[in-house]
Structures are given as structure tokens and as C-alpha cells.
Write a structure and sequence with these properties.
This protein has about 525 residues and is mainly α. The chain folds into three domains: about 140 residues, Rossmann fold; about 110 residues, Serine Threonine Protein Phosphatase 5, Tetratricopeptide repeat (Alpha Horseshoe); about 180 residues, DNA Cyclobutane Dipyrimidine Photolyase, subunit A, domain 3 (Orthogonal Bundle). Helix content is about 45%, strand content about 5%. It contains 23 helices and five strands. The protein has a five-stranded parallel sheet with strand order 3-2-1-4-5, sandwiched between helices. α5 links the parallel β4 and β5. The longest helix is centred in the middle third of the chain and has 21 residues. The N and C termini lie far apart (about 60 Å). Bound molecules: flavin-adenine dinucleotide. Flavin-adenine dinucleotide (FAD) binds next to α11, α13, α16 and α18. Its cofactor is (6R)-5,10-methylene-5,6,7,8-tetrahydrofolate; FAD.
Length: about 525
């Protein structure tokens, strides 16, 4: 007999992990070993557009966890199945019987394919007499808890967020951290079946997902819960550093300590700027569950002396509100699963007429659109697998409203590129931008790329760093070299002219959206 905790690529931590904790309790209660199982599935990563950076981050975190689990005498058992649809049968027919497992615990993944997989595991497992438990853990407030007064699901963020904050005030236990799992009895190593699991190897890479920039990315986003906690501490207690958008380790230089002038205290303005380390950079860690949302809010609560602030009035309140977007988009995805199947939330926008233009799509991906802020962001995306929120919005808006290319192409490319790629947040961000989402930017409000550029990168440092063709430009020219420089000078830069005209493309977008958006 033994208990299995099935760790997924969304809950890669030991602390505050609901299923892991409950599995440990069960193992203690029955006096049986606890095994952590991790299933590698290249077929799954492919179909879900996982990036090489995210898969590499996953492997690095497994390597971080293994010795820490071994300290608790808990083996990390790794299996690999390329055919994702075979996973339920393989686990229930092969893996669990080979361990004599009678109890299985896992945290719920709310994506449709994962839910279907888990339903199959529950069904097959129970048929074989196993006790299978799938538990809420990913979010602070589980999907389905927040409803309107009429008992309906809510699709507009602001009232939903107020209800979220109210619920947390009424039920503070939602923020409680789960105790860490207890160690196995050392005798687990004397049983041949379990002893050999301690030798399970974590592969160096997953075929088809080798990460070419691995060393560099490991510098920028080091693995492990300890790193995530230090990033959070710095966000709450140190001053922002200018030009930290460059490729440097976030932990390398001593950041200046200051609670009063900390990054979180300046978040209301900082979050819209891209010329420094103004936000927490925790998204890769939250997306892979290296740190939990509860752990993050626990620290935010300590920062404000024990009370959870949430709202636009303070930096920390604003940040907590931002963290709640993560819950919101998961709530949207689980309430209206069509959004994760390539459907717009607002069905009336299903028929917007998109351009088909491979060259434009490629120019966008390569950062060669002739719009410096878009190009800087897209090149940063390629190099780091991460972008600041403001430039995610600007570059996404450029693809959809200026190039008039289907938002799903951009959604897929971001997933394939980001180290923090997350279906709910990414889809939410794209549908907001494309004006097709639950709480969208109205279709007639179209970002002016140039104005956005001047606001989010006032000195042009971000652009100059990521677009070296423009590194010697001074003043406003860096935002719009084509219009600000004599054409003979512009030609010498070796930088592309704008691939679309802002004014004309804006009119095209308005026309196309109006065509479908205003017919009922
Ligand atoms: P902070 O500003 O420090 O915020 C803290 C945490 O709150 C983030 O780490 C994140 O977990 C959460 N959060 C903040 N804003 C949002 C948001 N709008 N939606 C959901 N969660 C949020 N975020 C992802 O984690 N993965 C994605 O794949 C992703 N794709 C996006 C695509 C588009 C088009 C847009 C506009 C946004 C996307 N976001 C995504 C949301 C947001 O841009 C990132 O979470 C944020 O930039 C990460 O930086 P940070 O950790 O420093 O955030």
C-alpha cells in the first residue's frame, strides 16, 4: 500500500500545497509510504503550445525539488508518456499497481483537456478500488465560489473583484497556508519497490523542447521556491532599479532596501513603465506553482500589518488586485470553457474579417515592424521569454488592431514563447485586447502605439537596449525614427520603415469591428 501525490507542472512546490499536504496526512494516518509522481508528456506540451523555456524551467524545478524531497525520504518518481491520451490507462493499469498505490491525490487543473484526463483517472482508479482525490489549490478563491446576487456567474472584473475581496474578508481561512508534508519513515528505503524510485533520473531535456537559451534564461529566472520568495521580498522591500529590463540575474546585485520607497509602494505608476524592474516578475513562479497565490498574499498582508489591502488606493492594494486577475481569468476559463477552445467570449466577434499576411506575422514575431516599442517588446520576448504587462498589451494590440491579424495567432505565439505561458491569463489578455473577451477594451478604443511608447518608456532606454539599430538616437526620434528623421538618415539605420500606417489601420479595424459588432 502507498499514497501517491501526482505533482503537475502547475504546482511545483512543497510548501502550501493542498494535495501534497493531504496526501502526507493520509500516508501518516495509514502508516504507509508517500510517493511523488511526475508525468512527462511531450505530446501534451506540443498540443498545448508549451515553450521550450517553460519546459526547461519545469525540469530545473524538478531538479531543485528532488533533493529536498529526498531529505524527507520521499521519492520523486518520473514517468514519461508521449501519447497524452494514454496517460489515464497507463497510470491506473501500470504505475499505480506497480507501487501498490491505493490512494491518489492531485490538485485540480482547470483547463478542459486536463479536466477530461482527470475525470478518466478518477473513473478508472475508482473502478480499481482506489481512493482518488482532486482538490482545489491553484487559486485563492476556487472557481464557482463567486456569483452575482442572482446566483449567476459574473463576467465583469470590477464587481467580481469587489466580491473576491469581500469573500476573503469574510472567510480569511481561504488565505491559510497548508502545512508542509511530513517525512516518510526511513524504512521506505528498505522496500525494494520504493528504494529504486530514489534513483529516478530527471532528463536533461524533453525531446522537441530543447531550450537553446537555457543558460541565459536560468540566470534571469533561477528555479526554486527560495528564489520566488526572495523576488517577492525584494518587490516589497527594495527600491526599483532602472534599466533592469536587461539580461541580468534579478538576484545578482544588492538592491537598495527601503519599505517606504519599495517597488510595491510605487506600483500604481511603476506597473505602466517598462524602463525598470517595477513589477514583481513572479509570473513564471506563479504559473508553475513554484510559489502559491496564498504565499504571495500572505506576505502582502504582513507588509500592511496583517490586513489584506485590495483596491486602487495604494500600491500594495493595486498589486493585490492585479494578483486577483489570475483568479478571475481562471474563473472565466472554467465557467465558459469555450474561451480555451479558440472561441471568442463575445460570439458576435467570431466573424471579424482578419487579414491573411504571413509576412506581417513574421515581422511582428521577429520585432521588425518599424514600430520601435513593439519591436523592442517582441525581441525581449524572444530573448527572455517574458514581457512587462504594458508591452504585452501594446504588442498584442498592434497585431490585432493595426495588422488586423487573428488574435489566436498571437495567443499561440505568446504561449510558445513565454516562460510564464498560462492558458487562462494569456487567453484573457488576448481576448481583452481583441475586444472579444468578458470585460474587454471596447473595440473602438484603439491603442496609439506611439503615445503608448512615449508613456511607458519615457527616455527610450528600453527601446535602445532591445533595438540596437536605434541605440544612438536621442529624444523623441527613438519612438518614431521614420517620421522624425530625414529619410537619408533613416535609411542608414538599417531599421525597417513602419509596415502599416497607424491612421489607416485604425480606420480599417474600426470598420471591420463595426461591421460585426453592431449587428445583433
Ligand atoms: P505583477 O505586476 O507583479 O503581478 C503579480 C502577479 O499577478 C503576476 O505574476 C501574475 O501572476 C498576476 N497577474 C498580473 N496581471 C495579470 C493579468 N492581467 N492577468 C492574469 N494574471 C495577472 N500572465 C501570465 O502569467 N501568463 C501569461 O501567459 C500571460 N499572457 C498575457 C498575454 C497578454 C496579451 C496580456 C495583456 C497579459 C498577459 N499576462 C500573462 C498577464 C500579465 O501581463 C503578466 O502576468 C505580468 O506581466 C507578469 O509580470 P509580473 O509577474 O511582474 O506581474
Amino acid at each position: 500500500d502507498c499514497v501517491v501525490y501526482w505533482m503537475r507542472m502547475e504546482d511545483m512546490r512543497i510548501e502550501d500545497n493542498t494535495a501534497f499536504h493531504r496526501a502526507s496526512e493520509r500516508a501518516q494516518e495509514f502508516g504507509v509510504p508517500l510517493v511523488v509522481l511526475f508525468v512527462l508528456s511531450p505530446g501534451d506540451y506540443k498540443i498545448h503550445d508549451r515553450s521550450t523555456k517553460r519546459i526547461d524551467f519545469m525540469l530545473r524545478n524538478l531538479r531543485y525539488l528532488k533533493p529536498r524531497l529526498h531529505e524527507l525520504d520521499i521519492p520523486l518518481h518520473i514517468v514519461s508518456y508521449d501519447r497524452r491520451l494514454s496517460i489515464p490507462k497507463r497510470l491506473v493499469n501500470d504505475v499505480f499497481p506497480s507501487l501498490g498505490a491505493k490512494h491518489l491525490f492531485a490538485n485540480i487543473e482547470y483547463e478542459v483537456d486536463e479536466l477530461r484526463r482527470d475525470i478518466a483517472v478518477v473513473k478508472l482508479g475508482r473502478e480499481k478500488g482506489m481512493d482518488v482525490r482532486c482538490l482545489h489549490d491553484r487559486l485563492i478563491v476556487p472557481p464557482g465560489r463567486i456569483k452575482s446576487q442572482a446566483g449567476k456567474p459574473m463576467s465583469v472584473f470590477s464587481p467580481w473583484q469587489r466580491a473576491w475581496a469581500k469573500l476573503l474578508a469574510a472567510e480569511p481561512k481561504l488565505l491559510n497556508l497548508s502545512p508542509s508534508p511530513k517525512a516518510n519513515l526511513e524504512s521506505v528505503k528498505k522496500d525494494e519497490r520504493f528504494a529504486k524510485l530514489f534513483d529516478d533520473e530527471i532528463p536533461d531535456s524533453v525531446e522537441g523542447f530543447e531550450c537553446a537559451e537555457r543558460k541565459q534564461i536560468a540566470e534571469i529566472f533561477p528555479e526554486g521556491t527560495e528564489t520566488a520568495k526572495e523576488l517577492l521580498r525584494r518587490f516589497l522591500h527594495t527600491k526599483p532599479r532602472k534599466t533592469q529590463f536587461q539580461i541580468v540575474s534579478p538576484l545578482s546585485e544588492g538592491a537598495q532596501e527601503s519599505k517606504k520607497e519599495s517597488r510595491v509602494s510605487q506600483y500604481q505608476t511603476g506597473r505602466n513603465l517598462v524602463d525598470g524592474d517595477n513589477s514583481s516578475r513572479l509570473s513564471p513562479y506563479l504559473a508553475s506553482g513554484v510559489i502559491s497565490g496564498r504565499m504571495v498574499l500572505d506576505e502582502a498582508k504582513k507588509y500592511t500589518g496583517g490586513k489584506l489591502e485590495s483596491g486602487r488606493d495604494t500600491g500594495v492594494g493595486m498589486w493585490v488586485q492585479e494578483v486577483s486577475w489570475r483568479d478571475f481569468y481562471n474563473h472565466v476559463m472554467s465557467t465558459w470553457p469555450r474561451v480555451s477552445m479558440g472561441r471568442p467570449f463575445l460570439e458576435k466577434f467570431a466573424d471579424v474579417q482578419w487579414e491573411v499576411n504571413e509576412e506581417h506575422l513574421q515581422a511582428w514575431k521577429d520585432g521588425k515592424t518599424g514600430y520601435p516599442i513593439v519591436d523592442a517588446a517582441m525581441r525581449a520576448c524572444k530573448a527572455r521569454g517574458w514581457m512587462e504587462n504594458r508591452v504585452r498589451m501594446v504588442s498584442a494590440s498592434f497585431l490585432v488592431k493595426s495588422l488586423m491579424l487573428d488574435w489566436r495567432l498571437g495567443e499561440k505565439y505568446f504561449m510558445e514563447s513565454f516562460i510564464d505561458g498560462d492558458l487562462a491569463a494569456n487567453n484573457g489578455g488576448w481576448q481583452w485586447t481583441a475586444s472579444t473577451g468578458t470585460d474587454p477594451q471596447p473595440y473602438f478604443r484603439i491603442f496609439n502605439t506611439l503615445t503608448q511608447s512615449e508613456k511607458c518608456d519615457p527616455n527610450g532606454d528600453y527601446i535602445r537596449y532591445w533595438v540596437p539599430e536605434l541605440k544612438n538616437l536621442k529624444g523623441k526620434a527613438v519612438h518614431d525614427p521614420y517620421h522624425q528623421m530625414p529619410s537619408s538618415e533613416f535609411k542608414k539605420l538599417g531599421y525597417p520603415a513602419p509596415i502599416v500606417d497607424h491612421k489607416k489601420s485604425r480606420e480599417r479595424a474600426l470598420f471591420r469591428y463595426k461591421n460585426v459588432g453592431e449587428k445583433e
